[in-house]
Amino acid sequence: MRIDILTLFPEMFASPLQASMIGRARQNGLLQINTVNIRDFALDKHQQVDDYPYGGGAGMVMKVDVLARAIQHVKDQPGRVVYLSPQGQRLDQTIVTRLAGEDHLILLCGHYEGIDERAMTYIDEEISIGDYVLTGGELGAMVVVDAVSRLVPGVLGDDASAEDESFAEGLLEYPQFTRPRSFAEMEVPPVLLSGHHEEIRRWRKKLSLERTLLKRPDLLLNRAFDAEEQSLLEEILFVRKKEKGAKR
After folding, report:
1. What whole-number distance in Å separates Cα of residue 53 and Cα of residue 116?
2. Which of 3, 28, 185, 195 is least surrounded, with the fewest CB atoms within 10 Å of its CB?
3. Coil, helix or strand at residue 28
4. What whole-number distance in Å separates Cα of residue 30 and Cα of residue 27?
């Protein structure tokens, strides 16, 4: 997979793109990630990339001609252009999975008061990482790169790791345990030591549902529960009702 990041501050990506799984994936040829300095496409001697907005107002606006040249430069092969913007659709795992299916992503990091509206004709979609405003799109681009890269085959080593994580199936992930078996009078749940794979699978599904119900109930509002999930959810609600009654 190829990812081109259009930015005014390529130095911000130097260390993150060399570290951890992304760094190894680049070394192994699974990911090709390039940072492109938008200033290189300004034609004046001062490399001006922004200007005052027509009509007045505070702040500066990134210039359409500079952005157009930068985008066209990295589109030497077809790619999906994503503009990191607080006005974009909020990033979630569904979007991440879709983007991971692209062969070439072009991430445009916005700055100042945004970009000249005419530059939107070069943009395929806008994405936001949350309802807040950052100083620029670089941190958002890093989040997209990290989330998408993990779904590229081979990057995680064990591709099944991504399948069981939070949001992969619309639920939060079940609790995880490792050695030691006992710590500070806290024990690993016996079912995980039983060796009974079907019981373990069902326990994990139940705990995923319970965690989602407690922490992110909004994720369950439009979920089409299968028969097993419906049964497990009824068990969870029955136990919680019983516990609540016992506390009175």
Report:
1. 9
2. 185
3. coil
4. 8
Q: Which of 90, 92, 124, 130 is nearest to 108 (CA)?
A: 124
Q: Is 86 helix (H, G, I), strand (E, B) or coil?
A: strand
What does the pLDDT look like over 128-178, one tens digit per residue?
999 999 999 999 999 999 999 999 999 987 665 666 666 778 899 999 999
Closest CA to 118 of 49, 61, 39: 61
Tell me phi and psi for residue 172, to 5 degrees: -75, 155
Q: Which residues contact 93 (CB under 8 A, 6 or more apart)?
A: 147, 167, 168
How many CA atoms lie less than 13 Å away from 60 in the CB half-sphere? 11
pLDDT in tens, 186-197: 999 999 999 999
SS3 of residue 164 by DSSP: coil
Angle at alpha carbon of residue 219, lines to 216 and 223, rounded to 5°? 145
CA 88 to CA 129: how far, in whole Å?
Answer: 8
Task: Please tell me what DSSP assigns to residue 61.
Answer: E
Distance CA 106, CA 127 (A): 12
pLDDT of residue 244: 85
Contact of 131 with 90, CB cutoff 8 Å: yes
What does DSSP assign to residue 151? Answer: T
**Which residue has tokens 């000249």?**
116
What is the model's pLDDT at position 112? 86
Query: How high is the pLDDT of residue 159?
Result: 64
Q: Which residues contact 89 (CB under 8 A, 6 or more apart)?
A: 95, 125, 126, 127, 128
Tell me, what's the pLDDT at 154?
Answer: 94
**Residue 52: pLDDT over 90:** yes
* Token code pair at residue 84: 């990191």
